[in-house]
Amino acid sequence: MELLTGILAKAGLAALGAITPCRLSILTFHRVHARADSIFPDELDAERFDQRMRFVAQTFNVLTLGQAISRLAAGSLPPRAMVITFDDGYADNVEVALPVLRRHGLAATFSVATGFLDGGRMWNDSVIECLRATAKDSLDLEAFGLRRLPVAEARDRRVAIEQLLSRIKYLTVAERDQAITRLQAICGVAALPRGLMMRTEQVRDLHRAGMEIGGHTVNHPILLSLTLAEAESEIVEGKRRLEAICDSPVDVFAYPNGIPGQDYTAEHAKLVEALGFRGAVTTARGVAQTGDDLFQLPRYTPWANSLAIFSMRLLMNQLHRDVELAPPRASQ
Ligand SMILES: [Zn+2]
């Protein structure tokens, strides 16, 4: 079945290649759990990731983001070009995903928010871990504009997490901190885990293993919620820290959250270029091709349980052009 899926996908991509110019699929990943997660069983675990990466290695020509940006600029993209990206800097990227990538001879680009290295935690994970750890059967979430929600079952916890995330996502950094403190009290959870994100030496290990490290700010703010000067400082300080850790230039960037017009604008794209990056990725869906704005490249998160659906979605994504691409920058 797996072999057949690979052959069909390759044939489909070759047929698409004959009628369309070379296109670049950029995949987005976040966590890769060692084992299936009880609250989010559909998220990637080591076994599924291994299966996906075997398919990718057999079917696509995988480049780092920096390599792909050079090839896009030169008009020399290989057929079936793909970039694998990981956002945020989860420790499981090093502990679980890296051995899989190496096993399949693949390089990937890891965009790391430096403020969470060495024991930090992103606000969304604080929400998830509060709900994971609570011993209560229901939570009074009126403080978040929600009703009392049941949390006895894993499925209930997932629903509560999703509702809380949507309430907290667009708050300021300070407001988010307050919200997490309040949620911890409501959940009756005294301490949250401190090992979710990479340690400094793990970033260095990734770089030494031939992986690419990209910028992702310090605190992962929504850039559009900051002044341009604050946004600049977030982007520059993240870049400098990563360059110091790796003793090497960091010249690719991923916008936090990454939705064009909602999380960042053309002004931020110009800023990223002015700060010495060679290109940047968004979360707008689609494939890239030569001529696209290198500072607003689209990406794709292929959520899917089965390999057959995963490969079909990658094929469909090859056709996904100019539908939700980022608007052009004011000046180039
Ligand atoms: Zn991110």
Q: Describe the sheet with the most strands.
A: 5 strands, parallel
Instruction: Give me the secondary-structure category.
Output: alpha/beta
What general form does the structure show? globular
Radius of gyration: 20 Å
Could you tell me the CATH topology label of the largest domain: TIM Barrel
Mean of residue pLDDT values: 90
Per DSSP E runs of 2 or more residues, the count of β-strands stands at 10
- Extract low-pLDDT stretches: none
InterPro entries: Glyco_hydro/deAcase_b/a-brl, NODB_dom, Polysacch_Deacetylase
Pfam families: Polysacc_deac_1
Protein name: Polysaccharide deacetylase family protein
Organism: Candidatus Accumulibacter affinis
Structure in words:
The chain has 332 residues and is α/β, with parallel strands linked by helices. The chain has 2 domains: 240 residues, Glycoside hydrolase/deacetylase (TIM Barrel), CATH 3.20.20.370; 65 residues. The protein contains 11 helices and 10 strands. Strands 1, 2, 3, 4 and 7 form a 5-stranded parallel β-sheet that branches. A 3-stranded parallel β-sheet has the order 8-9-10, with helices on both faces. Helix 1 packs parallel to helix 11. The model has no long low-confidence stretch (mean pLDDT 90). Zinc ion binds next to strand 3. The site of zinc ion has 5 residues, from strand 3.
